[in-house]
Design a protein that fits this description.
Elements: H1 2-19, E1 24-31, E2 41-46, E3 50-55, E4 58-64, E5 68-79, H2 81-90, H3 92-99, E6 102-114, E7 117-125, H4 130-141, E8 146-147
Length: 155
């Protein structure tokens, strides 16, 4: 009985590892994807020749990797004032320390031109997936990501 259990587990465990989907959880922040509102949770799948945004197990958009014209990234840094006020009600010392901390949100933007179809969108990535998403997009498209914080705009 033990040998049968060991044999089943030897086959079942590797199958569960390979059954996992390859994708990153992102939050759509705005752009030209139809019927999609900002703040919608999506999954970004990077395939060898295309990039897909999946919402509710259906493709929201599929973009050929060769049609991507630009990849940009940036961060939004802000202080945690609301959380600090909430903690200050309970404990003044912890609330004051919380006011000194900062929160970062990581954003990645894509623009594309595929014949007549042009568009773009911005998405918020998890801080742990941010670099992996950028590396994956750069590898598939062959384009170097541009730091939007370092860009200077001249009027």
């Amino acid at each position: 009985m033990n040998k049968l259990l060991v044999a089943v587990l030897c086959f079942a465990i590797p199958l569960t590892v390979f059954a996992g989907d390859n994708g990153y959880k992102v939050t759509y922040d705005g752009g030209s994807i139809p019927d999609t509102k900002a703040g919608a949770g999506m999954k970004l799948a990077i395939d060898p020749n295309q990039i897909r945004l999946v919402r509710d197990k259906a493709d929201a958009i599929t973009i050929p990797a060769s049609s991507i014209t630009e990849i940009s990234y940036g961060q939004d840094v802000h202080r945690r004032v609301g959380a600090a006020i909430g903690l200050a009600v309970v404990s003044l010392g912890i609330g004051a320390l919380m006011a000194l901390t900062k929160s970062k949100k990581h954003y990645i933007g894509l623009t594309w031109a595929d014949g007549d179809k042009k568009g773009g969108f911005a998405m918020q990535c998890d801080k742990n997936d941010y670099r992996g998403v950028l590396a994956g997009l750069e590898g598939v498209t062959g384009k170097k990501a541009v730091d939007s914080d370092a860009m200077t705009v001249k009027n």
